[in-house]
# Entry
Amino acid sequence: MEKQPTSPQKPSSKEEIPSRHWADHAADELIKKHPGKNRFTCASGISPSGVVHIGNFREVITVDLVVRSLRERGKEVRFLYSWDDYDALRKVPANLPKQDEIAKELRRPIAQVSDPFGTEKSYAAHFEARFQGEIEQLGVFPEYLRQNEKYRANEYTEGIKTALENQKTIVAILNKSRTSPLPDDWWCVSVFSKETGKDTTTILGYEPPYTIRYRCDETKKDLSVDFSKEEGVKLLWRVDWPMRWAKEGVDFEPGGKDHSSTGGSFDTGQEIVKEVWKKEAPYYVQYDFVLAKGIGSKLSSSSGSLITVGEALEVYEPSVVRWLFASRKPNLDFSIAFDLDVMKAYDEFDRTQRYAHGVEEGEEKKVSYERRIYELSVVKAGPVKPGTPLPVQFPFRHLCNLLQINEGNLDKVAAFYDLKTNEDRQRLESRAKRAWTWIDKFAPPEFKFRVRTGAEPKFTTKFPAVIQQVIDLLQKPETAKLSEDELSNAVYVVMKAANLDAKTFFPEVYQALIGKNMGPKLGSFLRAVGLPRAAEIMKGAL
# Structure
């Protein structure tokens, strides 16, 4: 088992460390772009068409990091999160119950589709409530805008009118990036039928200022809607997005890789907002996809191939989840590990924490950058004050081994650490709970073990005399004073004296301890088990 490193780890000469965090650069650019402005609007959002997954969280955390940086610079920030719940439900996600019932409600606004779980007032509300509860644990508290409510309350009447009046301009902009032009009967809006509540309608014409004539494709009835007084009219996404930029005065909003290509929705949106609403597009940052190790594909709410923020929080502490994103540039994809690399993630977070508290040494540029990442990772925002002592750390691999040795008994695990405060205990419990979940749900079989209790079949060793010498070694009072490395060396001496090598002998030791041919690093493992207990276990196995 591995202890916390005692020697400083410096970056290699080839490692390029940015001079400052990308979120600080974005905040500085926004201030430079709007000199004298004291109140900024930063926005993000998604359509809750299914489970909102950890990949969707990347947009939220990208905005949150910039919001933090702006606020640290003394700026007021309005942090908006739009639930695009007036979108029509187009597909039934594969991972939901009541598939047939949901299918009957396809093409209705997702805020008006029934909740298949029966816990919220609508399909959209279910996924909204779940995600909001998850990100609150990460210290993210935006102002939520529900587009279903805003459209139905006719808050976008003038925006819709302006778009319809400028439809030719919009068509010309969109056609620049198309291989074939939009059809002559294309409209920049969709209409939900008064008869069915679905957007299966055909628009027949626009009568300024506020009336749209349409046909319900299911009932074949010709109808009309006054969108200044009635609900049912919605701008298509490529027009809706720039309209909201203009209405809310958005200064910063990121977008996914799929929105960021040439001719993509941001590319056309910035031209539409300029030509139609005479406004400037927000400062934009592209973010890339997030994968989960073991899934191997882009996370997708509709396919059911996903990991939620809540599921990530079962394995990763809130600050570590934030760190996973804050430690990477948004335009680079990455994988969240649920395999053995979960230990690497925790080790790297702990190292970042040591940099922040001045315990880990390194080049000044590296230390400064890591400290900044840590400040953006902790749930409660704020700088690390100089001289603040480093909290007790619980290396993840070591903790997993202690938990398995003690069969999940937290009191026995806690006795291994020097816990001085209730906060230390709470932090141990937080990480131990997640380590135990990871062992149970995700750890590969080769990592798992159970210390022999005596109920297992006896072990017939090839080298009983040598195993007995190891038992005798563990029972000597002076052995208790040895360090982990010295203890390992002492076992090596016994082994070498018998003319055995590690490949031959160590599997015998592990079989006597845990019934497997391999296990954690022997010296630290024996120390964690306790030398008297380890001797008794080995004696009982023979």
Summary: Residues 422-441 form the longest helix (20 residues).
